[in-house]
Amino acid sequence: MPNALIIGASRGIGRGLVEEFAKRGWSVVGTVRSDASAGDLKMLAKDSGGKVTLEQVDTTDAASGAALRDRLGDAQFDLILVNAGVGGPQSNPRTVTDAEFSALFITNALGPVRLAEILAKSVKPQTGVVALMTSQLGSIGGNTGGTELYRASKAALNSFTRSFAARHKDKGLTVLSLHPGWVRTDMGGPNAAIDVATSARGLADVVERAQADRGDGFFDYAGKELPW
Ligand SMILES: NC(=O)c1ccc[n+]([C@@H]2O[C@H](COP(=O)([O-])OP(=O)(O)OC[C@H]3O[C@@H](n4cnc5c(N)ncnc54)[C@H](OP(=O)(O)O)[C@@H]3O)[C@@H](O)[C@H]2O)c1
Fold first, then answer.
1. Does some domain include residue 68?
2. Which residues of the chain are under the pLDDT cut of 50?
3. Residue-range definition of the domain harbouring residue 162
4. Which of 165, 184, 191, 204 is deepest in the core (most CB within 10 A)?
5. How many domains does the chain have?
6. Is the residue at 228 inside a domain?
7. For position 120, which CATH number holds?
């Protein structure tokens, strides 16, 4: 049975990914930030017949990541997918405060890749996949303006992800940057184009294909390769 660790799974796309991989027969550990937001995932775990279990981590807190690594012990995953992220302020470089900018970049860029680094030994060498949830808005080539701060945070994440891939090349990991589509979640809003199940199904297909093909890249939920 393949196994996955999905980081940021209390709601939205992360929760959808836990459900989708479990449906495909994977054993899945889903993380929540705190017990206060664990309710829905706890229900999913309870109904999963042991396929889904819960863990806790705050991606902005390196000590919390190290504690998770210690609790995981010798566990080796086929997939570690860091999904957690925030939309951040709807402002621009002229109006954003230093504190807002810092919080956004720590949550969307530094936190995810630092956690991937902390957990790198928990991914199966040669066959494992590390995936970071980014956005097509993080594409520098595709930047047509708007949503400037979020775009920049995801562009920074994409750069960190490529550096992570280069640093761990000798381990034979497959490293993916994933765009989930515009999805109806708390972040995507009610008018978004697709539902969580459609996004999660597509993303799981992309991961399973990458497991077989061993190709790094920046892909959307439909498997389309996106420009960096
Ligand atoms: N929805 C879209 O249309 C869309 C489009 C492109 C990219 N994305 C990306 O897809 C990912 C998921 O988005 P979503 O729409 O599902 O968002 P969401 O509904 O707002 O859910 C965000 C998830 O991230 C978790 N999270 C946030 N900060 C965290 C932290 N510091 N530590 C641990 N967990 C944290 C949240 O946990 P809590 O419940 O504890 O807050 C929640 O589980 C994000 O990276 C987002 O940027 C989304």
1. yes
2. none
3. 3-220
4. 204
5. 1
6. no
7. 3.40.50.720
What dihedral angle (degrees, nearest 10) is formed by the CA atoms of 32, 85, 207, 223? 150
Using a 6 Å CB cutoff, which residues line ligand 1?
Answer: 8, 10-14, 33, 37, 58-60, 83-86, 107, 133, 135, 179-180, 182-183, 185-188, 192
Single-letter amino acid code for the residue at 177: S
Q: What is the pLDDT of residue 39?
A: 86
Tokens in use for 173?
């990991």
Is residue 176 one of the residues assigned to a domain? yes
| Residue entry with tokens 């047509």 | 144
Q: Look at residue 142 in the predicted model and tell me its pLDDT.
A: 94
Torsion of CA 52, 183, 149, 58, to 10 degrees: -10
Please give the pLDDT value at position 214: 83
Structure tokens at 8: 């940021």
